TrEMBL record, chain A:
<feature type="transmembrane region" description="Helical">
    <location>
        <begin position="96"/>
        <end position="126"/>
    </location>
</feature>
<protein>
    <recommendedName>
        <fullName>DUF1468 domain-containing protein</fullName>
    </recommendedName>
</protein>
<feature type="transmembrane region" description="Helical">
    <location>
        <begin position="146"/>
        <end position="170"/>
    </location>
</feature>
<feature type="transmembrane region" description="Helical">
    <location>
        <begin position="49"/>
        <end position="67"/>
    </location>
</feature>
<dbReference type="Pfam" id="PF07331">
    <property type="entry name" value="TctB"/>
</dbReference>
<dbReference type="InterPro" id="IPR009936">
    <property type="entry name" value="DUF1468"/>
</dbReference>
<feature type="domain" description="DUF1468">
    <location>
        <begin position="14"/>
        <end position="173"/>
    </location>
</feature>
<keyword id="KW-0472">Membrane</keyword>
<keyword id="KW-0812">Transmembrane</keyword>
TrEMBL record, chain B:
<feature type="transmembrane region" description="Helical">
    <location>
        <begin position="26"/>
        <end position="52"/>
    </location>
</feature>
<keyword id="KW-0472">Membrane</keyword>
<feature type="transmembrane region" description="Helical">
    <location>
        <begin position="434"/>
        <end position="453"/>
    </location>
</feature>
<feature type="transmembrane region" description="Helical">
    <location>
        <begin position="357"/>
        <end position="377"/>
    </location>
</feature>
<keyword id="KW-1133">Transmembrane helix</keyword>
<feature type="transmembrane region" description="Helical">
    <location>
        <begin position="206"/>
        <end position="227"/>
    </location>
</feature>
<dbReference type="Pfam" id="PF01970">
    <property type="entry name" value="TctA"/>
</dbReference>
<feature type="transmembrane region" description="Helical">
    <location>
        <begin position="64"/>
        <end position="89"/>
    </location>
</feature>
<feature type="transmembrane region" description="Helical">
    <location>
        <begin position="397"/>
        <end position="422"/>
    </location>
</feature>
């Protein structure tokens, strides 16, 4: 079994278990959902009916997925810590991690905390500098990178803010 | 007489958009669509979803016009990067790269792009033809559908989409469909107005809005995928003739028409999109070809099949959208959501409530095909420049649009969080080889499935019989069950063994007689 397919089948084992838990949780929540007896509705039209079926089916599918990957040998050499270490050593993963930190900080922290134009400008500037200068095999000269990223971030921040505020009449966060 | 009436309505549809504003919208939206499609990582679904957020202030007909131009443009544009970079701009163009890229390596990039342009136009025309003749018939047929049929249609849609898009692993396709259906269960249900799974969060009581979810799953998730890759690909410089010789188009007319028909059929099947339309047309063309050995090495026929096949899916996918409100592809799922935003209610009633709309949609497709053909044949070299924009400069801007676009619809940060959640979940699921289409179909069809199952049961007082005895219900039920059974390996093995036995039994007397 190749490294990649082994990793996929290990991921399947974990997600299979997650789906079993999720499916059973949905089933339980649907089972205990109010059945609106006081309104005199027919018992086969209770709000929990369909989610209950779906939860059950998801748990069943998760179980099949987990069993299949178990049979394929996913449990062998299963070390989440080692997988994580290997992942962090990989350049692609470092790029992904950087992108995640940037995008999540922008959407979840910067927007709403800073004025929209400033948040957008900062996010674009840092993103471009990081990926053009540091997380690349062919770094752009620092001065050029800073100037171009500065110009682009100012232009994008202003254009997006103005277009959405003035043309689409959106009250930006 | 009947034909004349339809032609008159089509002429009205075309006339409806012969205004400067409409022509302007067609011009920019088709061009933007081509550019979005060309850029690897930006898909048609993402383009349409993002554009919904920008066009919600427009009148309904203009908004749907720009969205359809974006959709057709992006599917066409994806072929450019498939030919020049060997990276399909959208998944729909994966088959295009098989012959397009070898042609570019042979110095025929311009010609390949020209042939792709005419093939796309032919594909869209074939699809439009079927849209025109099938839509009203299907709507009339669906007019008699009750809760039983609609319930099975929803099940059929999710099951078939899960089975066909998860071809290597149907189990993951089904899981994706179930996840989508579960997302649709969040919020107020329509039968008793009960709030399900809102956990006291008021934003959840209205349910998950599909647009931010799609912007996340198709925008944010793709940005992460694109930025993760280490290397940028090299663009092949195009030169030489771009307008195809008439004889090349004429020689492959059978392939083009066959691919157009296959693409349209794939489009009609719920949630099975352009990529499968393209692959199936390509496979069928290779099987029927006299020059099989050229496929994969720069065959004009292969390129024609792939590009005709993916473009024909679009009008095909609009057939179930307009007649049943069931998406034929992921981008058309966004179109359904956009139609609801603009008070256009797709489904069997559409032909009665808004009979002109079908012909307006056909006119939109015709206009955008003309625009794309003009752009495609005249601006080849200019359009290639788009591919030289470095992704680290482009992707942050797209992400800003994902954030602000999700926010803009109802001006609440909650939708931005929905976008981020679906982006992360979509990325993880895609990395683990789960298809996205069944999730989208599940979200769109969840309430149809839920409401119609319970409404049907309410009508019969809890009796399930009509769900299995009415002819259409029975057929849809059988297809869904067979699709699920056939994806179980043990059943497949059993079936193969059974078939072998049958073959032996049939052969035996023949041998004996001999």
């Amino acid at each position: 079994m190749t490294n990649n397919s082994n990793r996929l089948s290990q991921a399947d084992l974990v997600t299979g278990i997650v789906f079993v838990v999720l499916g059973l949780t949905v089933f339980y929540l649907s089972w205990t959902m109010p059945r609106l007896e006081s309104r005199g509705i027919h018992p086969s039209t209770i709000p929990g009916l369909v989610p209950m079926i779906l939860g059950g089916l998801l748990a069943l599918s998760g179980l099949l997925l987990a069993l299949r990957s178990w049979r394929q040998g996913a449990s062998r050499h299963f070390s989440p810590l080692n997988s994580l270490r290997a992942m962090l050593a990989n350049e692609e993963s470092r790029r992904l991690l950087a992108m995640l930190i940037l995008t999540l900080s922008y959407a979840l922290i910067l927007v709403g905390w800073l004025p929209f134009w400033l948040a957008t400008g900062v996010y674009i500037f840092v993103s471009i500098v990081l990926f053009e200068r540091y997380l690349t095999a062919k770094p752009v000269p620092l001065a050029r990178c800073l100037i171009l990223a500065g110009i682009q971030s100012v232009v994008v921040a202003l254009v997006v803010t103005l277009v959405f505020q003035e043309i689409f009449l959106v009250r930006l966060p | 007489m009947f034909m004349m009436e339809e032609l008159g309505m089509l002429a009205q549809g075309v006339g409806h958009f012969m205004t400067p504003m409409s022509l302007f919208n067609i011009a920019w939206a088709s061009l933007l669509g081509i550019v979005i499609g060309m850029l690897p990582g930006l898909t048609a679904t993402m383009g349409v979803a993002l554009l919904v957020t920008l066009t919600y202030g427009m009148p309904g007909d203009q908004a749907i016009l720009t969205l359809i131009c974006m959709y057709v443009g992006a599917i066409y544009g994806g072929g450019r990067s498939a030919i020049l970079l060997n990276i399909p701009g959208t998944p729909a163009s994966a088959a295009t790269s098989l012959d397009g890229y070898p042609l570019a390596q042979q110095g025929k990039a311009g010609y390949a792009m020209g042939l792709a342009t005419t093939s796309s136009a032919i594909g869209t025309f074939v699809g439009i033809f079927f849209l025109a003749i099938l839509a009203s018939t299907l709507a009339e047929f669906a007019f008699n559908f009750g809760s039983y049929e609609f319930f099975w249609l929803a099940v059929f849609g999710v099951v078939i989409s899960g089975r066909l898009t998860g071809a290597d692993d149907p189990l993951k396709g089904y899981i994706a469909g179930l996840l989508g259906l579960l997302v649709a269960m969040i919020g107020m249900e329509s039968l008793h107005a009960f709030r399900r799974f809102d956990f006291g969060i008021s934003n959840l009581s209205g349910g998950i809005d599909i647009i931010p979810a799609m912007v996340g799953a198709f925008g944010f998730a793709e940005i992460l995928t694109v930025m993760r890759r280490k290397l940028d690909a090299q663009v092949i410089v195009s030169q030489g003739r771009t307008i195809p010789h008439f004889r090349d188009v004429w020689n492959y007319r059978r392939t083009a028409i066959r691919s157009g028909i296959i693409g349209t059929i794939v489009g009609i099947i719920p949630g099975v999109g352009e990529d499968i339309g393209s692959w199936s047309s390509y496979a069928a063309a290779r099987r029927a070809s006299k020059e099989k050995e050229k496929f994969g090495k720069g065959s004009y026929e292969g390129l024609t099949a792939a590009e005709t096949g993916n473009s024909a899916v679009i009008p095909g996918a609009l057939i179930p959208v307009l007649t049943l409100a069931i998406p034929g592809s992921t981008a058309s799922a966004v179109l359904i959501a956009a139609m609801y935003i603009h008070d256009i209610r797709p489904g069997p009633m559409l032909m009665i409530e808004n009979p002109d709309f079908l012909y307006q949609v056909i006119a939109m497709l015709l206009f955008t095909t003309v625009a794309i053909t003009i752009y495609g044949l005249s601006m080849t070299k200019l359009l290639v420049k788009v591919l030289s924009v470095p992704r680290q400069k482009l992707m942050p801007v797209i992400y800003v649009l994902c954030v602000v676009g999700s926010f803009a619809i109802s001006q609440q940060m909650f939708d931005v969080y929905v976008m981020v959640f679906f982006g992360l979940a979509g990325y993880l699921l895609r990395e683990m080889k789960y298809p996205m289409a069944p999730i989208v179909l599940g979200i769109i069809l969840g309430s149809l499935l839920d409401t119609n199952l319970r409404r049907g049961l309410a009508l019969t007082g809890g009796d399930m019989t009509p769900f299995f005895t009415r002819p259409v219900s029975l057929v849809l039920c059988l297809i869904s069950v067979i699709a699920i059974l056939l994806s179980i390996p043990a059943v497949n093995r059993l079936l193969l063994r059974g078939l072998k036995k049958v073959r032996l039994v049939i052969k035996w007397p023949v041998k004996n007689g001999a």
